[in-house]
């Protein structure tokens, strides 16, 4: 239940804490006084889109604190799962800065917008003139019927969902085995082609790297032959070559072996001599094997093109290509040995499809039973709201089985005897929709767990005896759930248990809206003001107002 709402710098309200009671809470006030601010602030606090226009002019931020008490078991479970402490009450705090940044806390714990919507989404039901638009959306009709049907349909629907998932799971397994016979044969042919293409290439890991190095070497053969020859000439072929000079230098120091430093130098020169000799031998081998071979270059180029072509199809590297080859072999092996498995899966699919069809038919039959009940109850409610002769029907159309069953549902409506029944959105007027929405709320009283329902001028355009019947319906709802209602209709207001008056005043050149609680006498006066429709209130209006209050059920 909504216990209180504290507003700071919200539109015309500077600072205000509003207390709500159980039962029927009525919000009164002249047009433009700021009644809608309360609804907008409550909606914002429960996760509605942040709107910077809500921030009071001249202020940098707004804050709304919402207090709920008498928590349901579901709400307590949510708080336990989120590890949020509570003492049978929850305080939701939401702020909004002028730069658009918003923060949310639940009992002091930071929360995300999604967490807030998941938690508070079912705590308050907003029901206004524009909310009746939901009734016009045919996509909502099946869900509304299922909510009315309650646990009986919910169990059957859960079974349908499980069976539908089972069918999809089996179809996925069959698809992984190649689908039907034709698809499986096409898959086998493709796999066999790919396996043969890769195997015929005879790839080895690292081959491409070696080929590229060899290609570069052969392409540079002439230059390599020339430069290696120059190096050999300087090292070993000229008269004063490096090898000969090192040999002579070593021999020159041989007679001074008794001197340690000279002997060390001689050994180092000797090491250089043998190292250079080894380099010469290696270079001579390179020179002898350096031969530009156009045919070998062409063969290497073709081989690299083949590897490049395969890499485009099967993997960036040879390792990737060979891994793809192994996967193809495994998949082909499964396909070739899958006939028995496939036959078993196809039999399983048939059985599950039959079970799904039967479950959908059972669900449809239960829905149709409750659809008749919904038609009867709504017709009765509409008659109570002075809509005699109306005809409401739930129309069914068979569709393919899905997780929702095999029904497409559409609400049909006729407002007058003899008038053709049509789609609800094509025939119902605004006033008819408001009463239809209220009728839905009444028939759904024991179907939903919402603790607070907000009615925002749902009585607009309704007057006379019809307004009285609508007031009785609201009073009836308030026996089961908390109601917060904005109204301009005297008979509706007179049914309330608690009254709030919103007034707008100019204080020091600033417009400010304030909210105050009314006692019975004050409420009678304000309802009399509604009756007279002006600032001056007549004794006749006050007497009329008293009679309305005395007539409260």
- What about the largest sheet? 6 strands, antiparallel
Q: How many strands?
A: 15
User: Residue ranges: pLDDT <50 for 5 or more in a row?
Assistant: none
- Strand content is 15-25%
Give the distance, in angstroms, between the N- and C-terminal Cα atoms: 22 Å
Secondary-structure-based class equals alpha/beta
The CATH topology of the domain at 1-123 and 450-553 comes to Rossmann fold
Features:
Rossmann fold; alpha/beta; 553 residues; six-stranded antiparallel beta sheet; single chain; 20 helices; elongated
Structure description:
The two termini are 22 Å apart. Among the domains are: 1-123 and 450-553, P-loop containing nucleotide triphosphate hydrolases (Rossmann fold, 3-Layer(aba) Sandwich), CATH 3.40.50.300; 186-336, no CATH class. The chain contains 20 helices and 15 strands. The longest helix has 46 residues, at 339-384. The chain is α/β, with parallel strands linked by helices.
Question: What's the arrangement of secondary structure elements?
Answer:
Elements: E1 2-10, E2 13-19, E3 24-28, H1 35-45, E4 61-69, H2 73-81, E5 89-97, E6 102-106, E7 109-110, H3 113-120, E8 124-128, H4 133-136, H5 141-149, H6 151-176, H7 181-201, H8 207-219, H9 221-237, H10 242-252, H11 260-289, H12 294-314, H13 318-336, H14 339-384, E9 391-402, E10 405-414, E11 422-423, H15 424-427, H16 430-443, E12 452-456, H17 464-478, E13 482-486, H18 490-493, E14 498-507, E15 510-518, H19 520-532, H20 539-550
Parallel strand pairs: 3-13, 3-14, 8-12, 12-13
Antiparallel strand pairs: 1-2, 1-4, 4-5, 5-6, 6-7, 9-10, 10-11, 14-15
Helix pairs in contact: 5-14, 6-14, 7-13, 8-12, 9-11, 10-11, 12-13, 14-16, 16-17, 19-20
